[in-house]
Write a structure and sequence with these properties.
It is built from 7 helices and 6 strands; from the N terminus they run αβαβαβαβαβαβα. By secondary structure, the chain is α/β, with parallel strands linked by helices. Strands 1-6-5-2-3-4 form a 6-stranded parallel β-sheet, sandwiched between helices.
């Protein structure tokens, strides 16, 4: 796959609540693969807040299955997923597609049924594209981020400017 195509999400929304869930369901999407940090909550949060709980509730109401897909190398993401009552794939190694492939296998879903939702081009979007799933990028939940993500944001801004998204 062309790397520039891999960096362009299929859709971009301001936040997860703007995602048209009925349209996704109508397109045959049944499973949402979710990043947590700065997608569903603050970067490096140890518990999900009301924002994450409300979105997971909205997904359940629409009969979507979902799975947290995190690069975290600790039990933090597993704890968050457990509190939300959803499965989790940790050590996802995004932007490599293996974590997303593990999530699809765990959820018993094909790539055509899945959507990857995240806030970063260089991890979430590329991993989703390489795994062959529909990708949705949302604006980051908070401006507060760990230093290595802060370093990537200017390059992401440039990619978004060139790709017009």
């Amino acid at each position: 796959m062309n790397i520039f195509k891999a960096m362009k999400p299929d859709k971009v929304y301001k936040n997860v609540f703007e995602i048209p869930l009925d349209q996704l369901a109508g397109a045959g999407k049944t499973c949402l693969l979710l990043d947590f940090d700065n997608t569903l909550g603050p970067d490096h949060a140890t518990e999900p807040g009301s924002y994450a709980h409300e979105f997971i509730s909205a997904l359940r109401e629409k009969n979507f299955s979902c799975c947290l897909v995190s690069n975290a190398k600790s039990g933090r993401s597993a704890k968050i997923a457990d509190i939300l009552g959803i499965p989790c794939v940790t050590y996802a190694h995004k932007p490599r597609p293996d974590g997303i492939c593990r999530a699809m296998k765990l959820m018993d879903r094909s790539s055509s049924e899945c959507v990857m939702i995240g806030d970063q081009v260089f991890t979430d979007v590329i991993a989703g594209k390489l795994a062959g799933v529909y990708t949705i990028m949302v604006e980051r939940y908070s401006r507060r981020e760990i230093w290595y993500v802060v370093l990537k944001r200017p390059f992401e801004k440039l990619v978004r400017l060139i790709g017009r998204f």
